[in-house]
Prior knowledge:
This protein is mainly beta. The protein has one domain (2-198): Metallo-beta-lactamase, Chain A (4-Layer Sandwich), CATH 3.60.15.10. Helix content is 12%, strand content 35%. The strands form four sheets. It has a seven-stranded mixed beta sheet, with no helix packed on it.
Amino acid sequence: MNITWHGQHTLKIVTHGITIVLDPHPPQKNIPSFRAKADIVSLSSPSAKEMSHLSCIQGSPTIIDTPGEYSLGGLTLYAQGWRHTDGSERSFQRWRIEDVVLLHLGALTRRLTTEELQLLEQIPIDVLFLPINGSNSLSPQLASELLTIIEPHLVIPTNYTTITAFAKAMGINPRNKQPKLTINNHSLTREGLATVILSP
């Protein structure tokens, strides 16, 4: 599968001819405009305009905007719902694609509850999309705590305004960014924790 990050919480995953878009953002001054043809669009915060801009999506995709379990074209998704303090419903989403388990935290801004952690611990997480240092994101301290608890094999930071401190904490050069990550079940290293910084 190919994974690209397009600024804010927006990710695109392409696998076996299927394109998945997570949390498409509207046009912004400081990041490139996003536009894509998609087969599946998943919204972790459907009431947030900055994370559910469907006008940028071409085609007739399946829209997933509620918690639940889904099976789509050989892909599976478990979306765990939670309610923000402002009353809006959000979710974090665990995907299984090409036998790789990916966790998209969406706009998580708090510690996970004991019940949520127990659900996640049922299946080891291979790839964690970690929102840091921006609005609708985790603080550096909470992000670090979550990495220690979830113990993914690969972490991809998202929704950040600056990456220097996080990269330093992870022991990598913040300038070492790549436009795309290509992985599968066989290429993924499952020993230790790797960090990949994608350029939007």
